[in-house]
Amino acid sequence: MADVVIAGAGPTGLMLGCELALAGADVLILERRTGPTGESRAGGLHARTLEVLDQRGMVEPFLAEGRPLPAGHFSGLPLRLDDLPTRYPYLLVLLQAHVERLLAEHATTLGVSIRRGAEVTELRQDADGVTVTLGDGGTVTGRYLVGCDGGRSVVRHLAGIGYAGTDATLTSLLGDVELADPPAGNVFQRRTARGDYSVLGFEAGWYRVMTTQTGVRPQDGPVTLDQLRATLTEIAGTDFGLHSPRWLSRYGDTARQADRYRQGRVLLAGDAAHIHYPAGGQGLNTGVQDAVNLGWKLAAVLRGDAAETLLDTYHEERHPVGARVLDNTRAQVALGRYDAQTEALRATVAGMIAQPAVNDQLAGMVTALDVAYPLGGGHPLVGRRLPDVDLPDGRRAYQLLHPARPVLLDLGATPLAVPEGWAGAVDHMHARSAAATWRLPVLGAVPAPAAALVRPDGHVAWASSTEGDTTGLDAALATWVRQPALAAHA
C-alpha cells in the first residue's frame, strides 16, 4: 500500500508528489496518458509559484529555461510586476510542457513512482485507505488518494463531490503554429468589433495564435486549422499565413469549483478542484500552490504528528483562494466584452490601474503574493507568506525551508527560549535582522517581527512584535507542528 496515490501527472500532481516524497512518504502517481503530451498548454509561472519552488531549492532549472517578463495584465490591461516585493518581480515565460518535464525529473530524484497509461475507473474508501481500480482491471491502494486529474476529474466524480459554477459565454481558439507573414512584433489581445486576437512568439520558429469571440459557445470536437484560420481572418483581417500546427485547442469561460476539497480519504487539487477562464495565467499556478499547502499537512498526518482534522484546514484555506480566482477571472471576462459600454468601462479601469496602489493590489492578487490565510490576529505577518529576507549569515529565509520543516525564525538580540518539548520538532534559527521593516504586498512596510513561526509552506503561523514574548507560541506549535496528545502515544 502506498502512503498516497495521486491521480494525474500534471504540474499539480507532480508538485504534490515532490512535497510528499521530500517528507518521506511513499508516493505513486497514476497518469492516464502513456507519455508527455507535447502540448504547450499554460505559458508561465507567477512570482508566488517561483517562491515556493525556491523554498524547496528547486527553482534554478526553471529560471534557466524561462524568460522573465516584467509585466502582466488584467483583462488585457497592462499590470506592472517589476515593483512587487519579491525576488521574482515578473512572469517567467515557460510553457507547461517544460514545467511538467522539470517537475517530473525532480520527482523521480526524490523516489516518486509515476505509472503512465493508468486510468482510474473506480474507487472505494474505508477506514484504512482507498482502493483504486484501473482501466486494465488492476487495483492499487493508498492510505489517501488525491485527484489532480483535471477539470473533468474522474476522482471528483467517483467521490461524489459537486462541481457547481457557470457555463461558458465565449469561445477562444488557440493554435501553436508557424506563420508565413508574422506581424512586426508580438500582438496581445488586440480588440476589434468582432473579437480579439493575440500573436505571440514563443520558441524559435513558431507562434501562439489566440482568438476570442464572446456570445459564442464552445463546440464539441477537435479544432481544425481551417477553423482557426477563418476566425483569425474574421477578427484580424488576415491569417498571417498560418500553417504547420503543433497544437490546436479551444476553451471557454466555464467556471466551476468543487463543493469541498476533501471527502474522507479522498482530496482534490488543481483543476480537479477549480476551473476558470485562463485570464492572467493563474490556473497552473493556483494548482501548484494547492499542492504546497496540502503536501506538508498530509505528510504530518501520515507521520502521526497530526490528526486527520488537520486536512480540513486545506479546504478552509485553499477553497477561498480558488473562489477568488474564479471571481477575478469572471470580472476579466466581463471587462473584455466589445460593446460601447464595456469600452467606456475599460477606459475607466485603465485609468485606475495607472495608480500604483490599484496596480499593486491587482498584481498581488494575480500573482497570489497577497494570499493571507485566516490564522488569527496579532502581527500583520500572521497568515501571510514570509518574505525572503536576507539573514546575517549570508543565507536567505527561503533556504531555511528547503527541508520542508517548520522554522522558528528568531530575530531578537537574545535567543528565544523554545517551549519545553518542542526543540526537536521545529528548526530554530536565531539571527539578528538588520531590517526594521519588511515590505509586504498591498500592506506595504510592516515592522519586522521579533520572532515568527513559519509553516513548511512558507506562511507565518505565529509572530511576536516584542523580544522574548512567546505568548501564543505553544498553541501555534500544537496546531501546526505536532499535536501533543498524539506525540505522547507515538
From TrEMBL:
Protein name: Putative monooxygenase
Keywords: FAD, Flavoprotein, Monooxygenase, Oxidoreductase
Domain named FAD-binding: residues: 2-329
Alphabetized Gene3D superfamilies for the sequence: 3.30.70.2450, 3.40.30.120, FAD/NAD(P)-binding domain
Listed GO MF terms: FAD binding; oxidoreductase activity, acting on paired donors, with incorporation or reduction of molecular oxygen, NAD(P)H as one donor, and incorporation of one atom of oxygen
Top-rank taxon: Bacteria
Lineage: Bacteria, Bacillati, Actinomycetota, Actinomycetes, Micromonosporales
A Pfam family matched in the record: FAD_binding_3
Cofactor(s) listed: FAD
